[in-house]
Each structure stands twice: as structure tokens, then as C-alpha cells.
Design a protein that fits this description.
Layout (H helix, E strand, L loop, with lengths): L2 E5 L2 H5 L7 E6 L5 E7 L4 H11 L6 E6 L3 H15 L9
Antiparallel strand pairs: 1-4, 2-3, 2-4
Length: 93
């Protein structure tokens, strides 16, 4: 999976690829995951901008991992949430 990290702001999000489904992690300045989610192909920037504008999830950076399929991304998301238990993810999802 290709991985990219940018600042969690509008200009950083604008630099991200939008051509494949992704697993994304919104991270603190220290690199700890605050939130983990998935976005479908073509909705990556939109989904991250939603989080940014809502202001409920804080972070300094966003790291994405591209996946071949949305199912693959969702499975990866569940493994990461289970292992890391990010602050803003509902546990037991």
C-alpha cells in the first residue's frame, strides 16, 4: 500500500491522491492516531475536509494508505482500530 502523510489542513488535504480507496489516520503532532477511517475512491479529500470543518477530531497530520478495494481498506481500518484504539473512534464498532 502506498502511504502519504500531510498536514491536517485544507492545503495538506488538497495534495492527497483521490484515485483509490484509502485508510486514513488523523494523528497528533507526536504521531499518535486520534482517529482512523476509510474513504472511497473519489471521496478522500471530501471526507477529510468534512472532519476538518466539523472540528470534532483534532490532529496535526493525516496519513493515508491507498488500498486496491474498499473492502480491503475497511478490513485494514478494523485491524488498526482494534490494535490502536484511537481516542475519537467509538470502541466496539
Amino acid at each position: 500500500m502506498a502511504t502519504t502523510t500531510v498536514k491536517f489542513n485544507k492545503s495538506g488535504i488538497a495534495k492527497l491522491p483521490n484515485d483509490k480507496p484509502v485508510v486514513y489516520k488523523i494523528e497528533t503532532a507526536g504521531g499518535k492516531a486520534n482517529y482512523v477511517g476509510v474513504a472511497k475512491r473519489g471521496r478522500v479529500k471530501e471526507r477529510l475536509n468534512d472532519h476538518l470543518s466539523e472540528g470534532k477530531i483534532t490532529g496535526a497530520a493525516v496519513r493515508i494508505e491507498q488500498a486496491d478495494t474498499i473492502d480491503h481498506a475497511r478490513a485494514r481500518e478494523q485491524r488498526i482500530i482494534s490494535r490502536m484504539q484511537p481516542k475519537f473512534n467509538k470502541q466496539g464498532k
